[in-house]
Amino acid sequence: MGLIQKAVEKEGIATISITHLPELTKKVQPPRALHIKFPLGRSFGAANRVDLQRKIVMDMLNGIIDMEEEEKIRKLPYRWRRD
């Protein structure tokens, strides 16, 4: 994903991604990424958690605006809850 982000950014479009594997993401060096500690495939949380999903999307939009150049990966505060 980071390689695609770099190509899109070269065209002047800001990008951000979500990662579950920050060590791998650091190697690819995307322009901006958010690290979330959720199971793979659950980047936006459990089904029907609209409140949490909305927060994550807002974090992405805000990250595009306010992430500094040297801050390539930002850790999100959310944790997966086991019910």
Q: Could you describe the 3D structure shown?
A:
The protein starts with a helix and ends with a strand. The chain has a 3-stranded parallel beta sheet with strand order 1-2-3. Helix 2 (22-28) links the parallel strand 1 and strand 2. It has 83 residues and is α/β, with parallel strands linked by helices. The chain has one domain (2-79). Helix content is 40%, strand content 18%.
Could you tell me how far the N terminus lies from the C terminus, measured between alpha carbons in angstroms?
31 Å
What is the 3D shape? globular
Please work out how many helical segments DSSP would assign: 3
Q: Look at the structure and give the mean pLDDT.
A: 92
Identify the strand order in the major beta sheet.
1-2-3
From the alpha carbons, calculate the radius of gyration and give it in angstroms: 13 Å
Number of domains: 1
The main β sheet shows up as:
3 strands, parallel
Total strand count, please?
3
> Segments where pLDDT lies below 50 for 5+ residues?
none
Q: Which percent band covers the strand fraction?
A: 15-25%
The ordered H/E elements are HEHEHE
Helix content: 25-40%
SS-derived structural category: alpha/beta
